[in-house]
Amino acid sequence: MSVQKRSMRRKYITIITPLLLILVTLYGISYGPISISLTEIWTALFTEENTMQKKIIMDIRLPRVLIGLLTGACLAASGAVLQGVMKNPLADPGIIGVSSGAGLAAIITMVLLPQFINLLPIAAFIGALFTSLLIYLLAWDRGASPVKIILAGVAINALLGAIMSGIMVLYSDRVQAVLPWLSGGLTGKGWYQLEFMAPYALFALLLSVLAIKPANVLLLGDDSAKLLGEHVEVQRFLLITLASLLAGVAVSVAGLVGFVGLVIPHVIRLLIGDDYIFLLPLSIISGAILVVLADTIARSWFDPIEIPVGILLACLGAPFFLYLLKKRRIL
């Protein structure tokens, strides 16, 4: 792709994605078993009038949409950071075990320690971070190469999955409340979940701005980065920690939602290139768009049945991603 063509794409996508974010947010608030017009949304948000539409928006749809935005943004940012660290467009929190680490910690909290359910985001982050550190140590041999990190992550991912299954077998009487979470979804999520998720998510997303420069440096290769005076292993460790925080925050509320951190950064990279000045912000916005749109479809198009958004994303995303791998193009 020529430099001029890529520059034009960046301009168009930078303009289009924020507009799509606004449209999808309004779509998520307005569409459902009861359709709500834009006028009614305005009335509900900015007037004191107490109507049924206002209760639906304020108590059900608005917090769910906001959680979807944060979940998609965090997962996409985590995937983009990990792909930069690994120098591999197939890296993803789910593939290398970060999401499974967060998931195991969340299951332990929900099944074995329900009295600490308010600490679920912290537990998920600790699980994700511990898993990341373990993978990093297992891959270390006078440096941690991206290939070794991915191989170690795949092995740890399988182990953590087996442990989660074992816990569910041993405590089968308590599993019913965990099963929807394992499928990944936003059903029943409201202001309570948003209030304890938002501070962690916003903090992690703000920190991700600091990842732009080191991610770009790591793309040059370890030897080139060291020649520029960069501490490669320190930067790689910090970026993996950030990706763990982002994944842990998303998993703690939305469950094991896949596909977003894998495909969104990959698609954006195919469209505009590897420069994280554009790649990371556009991935964050696009991830938010995807999760809210998919969740709205999952809860509305199959009424009266509500499909967990994680299942819908897997069913739609896997074939699409295989198509991308086969064709190696978007347009």
Question: CATH H-level name... which superfamily?
Answer: ABC transporter involved in vitamin B12 uptake, BtuC
- Helix and strand content put the structural class at mainly alpha
- Tell me the major beta sheet: none
Order of helices and strands: HHHHHHHHHHHHHH
| N/C terminus separation | 12 Å
- Classify the helix fraction into a percent range: over 70%
Number of strands: 0
> Structurally, how many domains make up the residues?
1
Overall shape: it is: globular
Explain what the structure shows.
The chain is mainly α and 331 residues long. Helix content is 75%, strand content 0%. The protein contains 14 helices and no strands. Helix 3 (52-86) crosses helix 12, helix 4 (98-112) packs across helix 5 and helix 4 (98-112) packs parallel to helix 6. The mean pLDDT is 83.
Which features would summarize this protein structure in a list?
331 residues, mainly alpha, ABC transporter involved in vitamin B12 uptake, BtuC, 14 helices, membrane, cell membrane, ABC_transptr_permease_BtuC, Iron ABC transporter permease, transmembrane helix
Helix and strand layout, with pairings?
Layout (H helix, E strand, L loop, with lengths): L2 H28 L7 H9 L5 H35 L11 H15 L7 H20 L6 H25 L8 H5 L7 H18 L3 H7 L3 H6 L4 H23 L5 H13 L3 H25 L8 H19 L4
